[in-house]
Design brief:
The chain is of the alpha/beta class. Helices cover 41% and strands 15% of the residues. An 8-stranded mixed β-sheet has the order 2-9-8-7-6-3-4-5, with helices on both faces. Strands 10-11-14-13 form a 4-stranded antiparallel β-sheet, covered by helices on one side. The radius of gyration is 21 Å and the shape is globular. The structure holds pyridoxal-5'-phosphate. Pfam families: Aminotran_1_2.
Amino acid sequence: MQYNFSNRFKNLKPSPAGDILAMMGDPTLIKFSGGNPATDSFPIDKITEFSNEVLTTKPLSVLEYGLTEGYHPLLQEAKKFLNRDGNVVRDDDMMICTSGSQQIADCLAKVVCNEGDTVLTEDPSFLGVLDSIRSNGANLVGVKMEDDGIDLSDLEEKLQIKPTPKFIYVIPNFQNPTGITMSLEKRKAVYELCKKYGVLILEDNPYGQLRFSGEAVPPIKSFDEEGIVIYAASFSKIIAPGIRVACAVGKPEIIGAIKQVKFLNDVHSTTWSQVICERILATCDMDAQIEKLKEIYGAKNKVMQDEMAKNFHPSVKYTKPEGGMFVWVTLPDGVDMMKFVGEALENKVALVPGTAFLADTSMPCQSFRMNFSTPSTEDIIKGIEILGKLTYKYCK
Ligand SMILES: Cc1ncc(COP(=O)(O)O)c(C=O)c1O
């Protein structure tokens, strides 16, 4: 059969990370290429206990169809939880539960983008969401990044593209893939500039709770008086990604439209997951759960940073995240990054080439992403030693 795929599908180029992901099953590989939370943080006992409870006492409540906007007790608990970080969910906001935060980007693109519309993004950014925006026919335009977040003059220039971009996608906390956190000044400036040019902001915050050093910075959503911010929260990184529970927050007109598209996507998110998530938020010590995550990630990040400082050639630059799961490593000009990543893989260390995260994946890139939440401490030490030797081979 000759399958006749749509242009939208055909435009999705295979990710350069594909080869690496294909090797993920190899047990001898040191995987700095993952993006998963540390599995030892999952509250498995609680998930088992609450699953047994609900399936024993009221099975039909989770086995029947549910509401597209989500299970109301979960939405109430999630509102309380999100507002620990500031005024994220206002009384005149609407909040819905989605199947992961990835679905929010997909639905938003479907709601606001026509074929060929522009969407701005931090460059580099999370490839899952970038692909989702591309698959909806929009053109991605990247905005340069600096050590404290997006480059404001580049942003202002790109906000003036005609026709006006439909939205900008930002990850202000411990960005995937760079680990960079946007400063408070920049968050305010991004908000003001987007307000000035009438551009929506998709603020994706899956890592915000995972701060192991420095001071928390309020979300852009907390100073949104105009209804231009769509806030995406996720429980993937603080409970478990397999439950696929996330929340979209914003003004009812836009969140209502997202809900309509979500209905066509999957009718509603799995009720079982929402009930489990609600039980965990309502009855478990979330501070202790988050503290446990911060301890695990903070310790692993420290080992990775210390080992990079000891082993890497001095011309190699890398970010120093205050939270999250990722470090962005940049090789000096003239070094062939793809060759470096290829040789690392031959030496059993998997990295993700930075090109995968660019708005325009045909652009040159000197960087690669490393994850520190999944590998063991021993693997971090061993893997960085291997990479260190390679940096001395490649960098003069
Ligand atoms: C920045 C970012 N946004 C969204 C997601 C998707 O998360 P979810 O599991 O909530 O769909 C990820 C997953 O790694 C991510 O890194």
